[in-house]
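Much of our argument rests on the idea that a fold can be written as discrete symbols. Part of our work consisted of pairing the sequence of a single chain with a tokenised description of its backbone. We regard such an encoding as a compact summary of how the chain folds. The amino acid sequence and the backbone structure tokens for this protein are reproduced below.
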Amino acid sequence: MRQPDSSLPRTGQDHTRSPYEPELGEVPSNDRSQEDLENVNETGTTTIGITTAEGVVIATDMRASLGGRFVSNKDVQKVEQIHPRAALTLVGSVGGAQSFIRSLEAEINLYEARRGEEISIEALATLAGNFARGGPFFRINPILGGVDEAGHHVYSIDPTGSVMEDDYTVTGSGLTVAYGTLEREYEEEMTNEEATRVAASGIAAAVERDAGSGNGIYLAEITDDGVTIEGHTEFDELL
């Protein structure tokens, strides 16, 4: 008769591992195989954030791909409102980005409930960077845009938790193409309408050359009045 393994408790959990793993700020080990990675739904993507005289404009394409080879969805909203006057883009693996946004929204609610005041965009960016560095969010590189009493802000957040503020920024697989467009067309103190045209021009250029980007554009406008998000399948009306 087979004897039970006395090294494991009845739950079957391996208690030889430290109960404190992973340590704070440590990314859990990634034991995914290459085959697993090829089957991850990814946004591929091109996302753009621009500060304006009136607020912030964020633009993203609409395509999701499977392993970068097959278009798995043609209408993915890659920008979501996470605050009354802030929005965040989805870049990287779809599941990782969605989990990141849900966790960030929960932490924002806790922050504001405890302090009795609205979180600043700078504090929100720091929180997002800490989450990206210390959490199990797989391959994300979002843009955070928001408006508060301190001004109009655009931050890029990379998977290591780096948080960088700029007048405009681009992330995703089409960034090299889109950056060239923004370098040529961006001007300080643009209106939201002008920035919308520039952002749409950058996304349209990336769609022409980047296989991970395509199928239209989502635009988010952020002002003191809040966040509005609209999708467009054609670029002609925006350029």
Q: What stands out?
A: The longest strand covers residues 151-157. The chain has one domain: 40-232.
